[in-house]
C-alpha cells in the first residue's frame, strides 16, 4: 500500500506538468495546492479516535485520491517555478539555479525532519501529559493539514512578487506526439518504433503493478505469522513466508516484463535521437498549425527525447535503493530494540537521520566541498557526472550496510522481557500479541538512513537541474514531471515487484538481505549504464544543445 500511494503521487506528475506548460506554473500550483490541502483535511478528520473504522473510506479518498492528485500537480512545478525566478540567460544564473535546487531539497527535508523526528512518534505513542496515545494519529495528520493550508495561503499572499511565465497551451506537447508518430510512419526506422513501444508499455506496467500490489493476500498464514510468540516456548507452526497466490504471482511477472521492456526500449531508442523526422506543413494547413511548428521545432523535440535515457537510468538505479527507506528500513528497525527511557520509538523515527544529513551535508557541499573539488580538478564547478556516480556508489553501500544489520538482527536473541514491538506486525495493546524485538539497538539503522541522505544530496537536486536545463522552455514542466514519474512512480512500481519476489512477510524466518542485495546490484549496474548512455549520446547531444550531463 505504501508503494501504491507513492506510485499514485508520482503518476499524477505527468498531468500536472502538462497542465502547467499549458496554463502556467503559478495557476497550476495554486489549484493543485488547494486540492492537496483539502485531502490532508479529510485524512485528519478520518483518523479521530473512535471513528477510524467508520471513516476508513474518507481516509482512502483523502489519501489515495486528493493528496495523490494534489502532490502530483505540485511536485513538477514548485522546483521549476523557483528556478524561473532566477532565470537562465547567463552562466552565473545557471550556476545559481544549481545552488537553488540544492537549497530547495534542503528546505523540503526540514519538513521531513519535523515529520519523522516529532510527529511520527506521536502517532503511536502520543505526547505524555499533552496528547493522549489514542489521539496521536489525529494530532499528527491534523498538523499536516494545518501546515498545508498555511502554505497555500502564504504562496498566494506573495503573488505580486513572482515572475509568472505564461503557459504555452498544449501545442508543444501535441507537436511532440506528432513528431513521434510521423517518425514511426515515415523514415524514423526501428528506433522510432522502439521508442513508441517503450512509452506505450509504461501505463501497462503501472496498471499491472497496481493490480499485483492490491491483489488480496492469503489470510491464514499471515495471521499465524503475526500471532506466534517465540518467547512462549510453544512449537512454531509451519507457514508460508510470502503467502503469494498464483494470480498475484502471474501479475508480478507480467509487470516485471512490461517494466523492463519499457525502460530498455526508451534508453536504447533515445540515446541518439536522429530518428526524429521533420514535419512538413501542409499547404492548406491552418496558420495555427504552421505557427505551432515554428514554436516547437524538430530540434527541440530531439532535445527533449535525448534527456530520457539519463532520467530513466539514474532514477531507477538510485531510487530502488532509496525506496528501502519507505518500508524495509523502518520494518527492520521495528524488530530491533526501540526502547528509550521506558518508551518505544517508532521505526520510522530513524528516518530523521536521512533528513539531518541532507540539511547538514547540503550546506557543507555548497559552501566547502563542491568549491574544493572544483578547484582540485581545475574546473569551474563539479560536474553532474561526478555527483551522480558518487551518489550511486553511496546508495549501493547504504543497502549493503542494511543487509549486514539485518543478518546481525536475526542472529541476536529476542528481548522476551521487553514486551512486544509497538510498530511491528501483529501488535495489540493487550500485551499478549505482537512481534518480539531483537537484542540489537535500532539506532544502528541511523547508518543506512544517513548514507541514503548523502546520496540524495548528490543525485536528486542534480536530476531536478538536469531536467530543467535539458528541456526546451515550452515543455520544462512536462520533462520535470517525467523525471519525477520515474523517480517515484516507476521506481516504486519496480520496488513493489522486487518486494513481492524478495521481501519476506516474516523477517525472522525470511532473508530481507536478499532484497537489499538486489537494490545494491541495480545501483552498481546503473553506474555502468549511465556511463554508456552519456558516452554514446554525447555527440548527438552536442549537435542539439548544451547538455549539463556532459560538461
TrEMBL record:
The keyword Transmembrane applies. It is found in: Membrane. It is a multi-pass membrane protein. The chain crosses the membrane at residues 30-51, 100-119, 139-158, 192-215, 250-269, 304-325, 345-372, 384-405, 442-466, 478-502, 514-533. Gene3D superfamilies: MFS general substrate transporter like domains. Belongs to the major facilitator superfamily. Proton-dependent oligopeptide transporter (POT/PTR) (TC 2.A.17) family. This is Protein NRT1/ PTR FAMILY 8.2 (AtNPF8.2) (Peptide transporter PTR5). It comes from Durusdinium trenchii.
Amino acid at each position: 500500500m505504501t508503494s501504491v500511494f507513492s506510485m499514485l503521487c508520482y503518476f499524477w506528475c505527468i498531468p500536472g506538468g502538462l497542465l502547467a506548460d499549458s496554463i502556467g506554473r503559478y495557476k497550476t500550483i495554486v489549484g493543485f495546492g488547494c486540492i492537496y490541502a483539502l485531502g490532508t483535511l479529510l485524512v485528519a478528520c478520518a483518523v479521530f479516535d473512535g471513528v477510524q473504522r467508520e471513516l476508513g473510506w474518507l481516509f482512502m479518498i483523502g489519501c489515495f485520491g486528493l493528496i495523490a492528485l494534489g502532490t502530483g500537480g505540485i511536485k513538477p512545478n514548485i522546483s521549476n517555478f523557483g528556478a524561473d525566478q532566477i532565470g537562465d540567460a547567463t552562466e552565473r544564473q545557471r550556476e545559481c539555479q544549481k545552488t537553488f535546487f540544492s537549497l530547495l531539497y534542503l528546505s523540503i527535508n526540514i519538513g521531513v525532519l519535523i515529520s519523522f523526528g516529532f510527529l511520527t512518534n506521536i502517532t503511536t505513542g502520543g505526547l505524555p501529559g499533552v496528547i493522549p496515545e489514542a489521539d496521536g494519529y489525529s494530532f499528527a495528520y491534523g498538523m499536516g493539514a494545518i501546515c498545508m493550508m498555511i502554505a497555500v495561503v502564504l504562496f498566494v499572499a506573495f503573488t505580486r512578487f513572482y515572475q509568472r511565465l505564461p503557459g504555452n497551451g498544449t501545442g508543444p506537447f501535441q507537436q511532440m506526439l506528432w513528431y513521434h508518430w510521423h517518425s514511426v510512419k515515415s523514415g524514423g526506422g526501428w528506433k522510432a518504433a522502439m521508442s513508441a513501444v517503450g512509452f506505450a508499455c509504461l501505463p501497462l506496467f503501472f496498471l499491472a503493478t497496481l493490480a499485483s500490489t492490491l491483489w488480496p493476500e492469503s489470510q491464514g498464514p499471515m495471521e499465524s505469522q503475526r500471532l506466534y510468540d517465540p518467547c512462549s516456548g510453544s512449537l512454531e507452526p509451519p507457514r508460508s513466508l510470502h503467502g503469494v497466490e498464483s494470480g498475484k504471482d502471474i501479475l508480478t511477472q507480467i509487470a516485471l516484463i512490461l517494466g523492463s521492456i519499457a525502460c530498455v526500449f526508451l534508453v536504447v531508442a533515445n540515446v541518439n535521437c536522429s530518428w526524429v523526422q521533420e514535419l512538413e506543413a501542409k499547404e492548406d494547413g491552418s496558420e495555427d498549425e504552421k505557427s505551432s511548428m515554428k514554436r516547437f521545432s524538430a530540434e527541440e523535440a530531439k532535445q527533449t527525447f535525448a534527456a530520457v535515457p539519463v532520467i530513466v537510468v539514474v532514477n531507477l538505479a538510485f531510487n530502488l535503493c532509496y525506496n528501502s527507506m519507505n518500508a524495509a528500513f523502518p520494518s527492520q528497525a521495528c524488530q530491533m530494540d526501540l526502547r528509550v527511557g521506558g518508551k518505544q520509538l517508532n521505526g520510522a523515527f530513524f528516518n530523521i537521520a536521512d533528513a539531518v544529513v541532507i540539511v547538514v551535508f547540503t550546506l557543507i557541499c555548497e559552501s566547502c566541498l563542491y568549491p574544493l573539488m572544483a578547484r582540485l580538478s581545475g574546473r569551474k564547478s563539479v560536474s553532474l557526472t561526478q555527483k551522480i556516480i558518487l551518489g550511486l556508489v553511496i546508495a549501493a553501500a547504504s543497502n549493503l550496510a542494511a543487509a549486514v544489520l539485518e543478518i546481525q538482527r536475526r542472529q541476536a536473541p529476542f528481548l522476551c522481557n521487553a514486551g512486544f514491538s509497538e510498530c511491528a506486525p501483529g501488535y495489540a495493546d493487550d500485551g499478549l500479541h505482537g512481534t518480539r524485538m531483537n537484542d540489537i539497538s535500532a539506532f544502528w539503522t541511523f547508518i543506512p538512513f544517513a548514507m541514503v541522505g548523502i546520496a540524495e544530496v548528490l543525485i536528486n537536486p542534480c536530476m531536478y537541474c538536469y531536467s530543467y536545463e535539458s528541456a526546451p522552455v515550452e515543455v520544462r514542466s512536462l520533462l520535470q514531471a517525467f523525471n519525477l514519474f520515474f523517480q517515484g512512480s516507476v521506481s516504486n512500481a519496480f520496488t513493489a515487484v522486487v518486494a513481492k519476489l524478495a521481501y519476506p512477510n516474516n523477517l525472522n524466518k525470511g532473508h530481507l538481505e536478499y532484497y537489499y542485495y538486489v537494490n545494491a546490484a541495480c545501483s552498481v549496474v546503473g553506474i555502468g549504464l549511465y556511463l554508456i548512455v552519456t558516452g554514446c549520446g554525447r555527440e548527438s547531444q552536442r549537435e542539439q544543445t548544451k547538455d549539463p550531463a556532459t560538461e
